[in-house]
Amino acid sequence: MLDLFLEKFLFYIYLVIPFVFAVFLGILTFLKNPIYIRRISKTFFFIQFILAFLLLIKENNNSFSFFNFNFIFDEIASIFTFLTAFLFFIFSIISKTFIKKSCRLFYCSLSTILGLTNLIILSDNICLTLGGIFWVFLISYLLKKNYRYNNKNLLLNQLKADILILLACCVLIFYDFARLFILNEIPFNFTNLTQNLYHINNSSILYAFIGFFIIICRLFNLAPFNEKIEKSSSNNHISTINILTFNIIANALLIKIYFVFDYLFYDYEDFIAAYLILNLVWFAIISLKQRTLINYAFSSFLVFITTNIFTLFSFEDEGILAFLYGAIAIILSYTLVFLTLNLISYKFKTNEIAQLPKISSKNKLIKFFSIFAIMNIAKVPTLALFSATLINFIIIFSIDYDGTVLNFAPYICVITCFIITLSALNMFYRILIEPQKSYKNETELSNHQIITLIVLSAAIILAGIFPQSFFNGGL
Q: Mean pLDDT across the stretch 296-312?
């Protein structure tokens, strides 16, 4: 009884404290020194990380009610919340390099996005989930507007498109599908969907499934819903935070939808597979042609994401575990990739690959982390992306597919995976070997940058060496 009370207390604190901290930091107007704001913020994100760790080790599949909203805290939710807390702690440390103005606004926004991400991951209520996604879109827009984009019209059009997509998906989800729950005063929760689907018209279920699937595709940044990254953007660190946050939310939401609509995934597997294959081929090809660091990382990132989704077509627990492990490995790996490339871009004042100067031989650490990050994309054995890709291929090739398109999918995954390896080796050459001119004002990595990159590298190595520990626990 005491353990359950303690877990509920930790859960409520973890859920609420990001919003409380954002308000607290916002009203402390007398605190104007950015150094103190950063220190207080890093302390908060560290505390949040510790709380997430405590919840992870105490996880025992409980549900909670908070302000009449239901929340589910199971093994999958605990993994995603811990991963989220870890990444935002990393962001709070490394942001000292990239955020030079409006520190209060940045850390308030970062804390709010953390709270909203936790809310979406843990919420069982569909309305609360969709509302949380809307606010994530809005706050992400405000962050980009203040720090990153030079072209405000492009940014505003992206926000309008996101809201329009979300509204259209809400219409598909709520039209006729939610009427049963409203008329019978049944909470419109994910856990209640499975028990009541047989009361709902099949066409309404299909519309709702399409609505959820479109939202997930937008959050994953799959074509044609992918975010347009401006070449002349002034702060790619904000892009990194948005891309990775959207990806965590998309993975968590996809698992929820998969458990409810798994039979629709089976019935329409060829259509879904065809769409995923188009994304695979498209992003694999353009990864070879990218001219900026952020766009290269973004396109190769989407290939790994798409390949990972194919594991769900096994319709077995092993496939779900492979998907979860792949999601963790991809997110950790590309956090390092994005941050390393952002540091290179920041130090040399350019995001254009062709304009990058030669990295000084004195700056060995930035060379090491660049090599490590790129070799991980190239899938060097024992690193996380190698293990994730290997497990994905074992699952994908072991499935006896019924769909015609899916029978070709494993081979296309192998081909696109090989293309990404080639693009990674090409990037290795273009960043570290090809440049001839030197940069006079090159500086070495600072302590907080080194600590951040070391922690991420260690996490990637551990995830790559011990994937079996993830699968031994089961679901």
A: 94
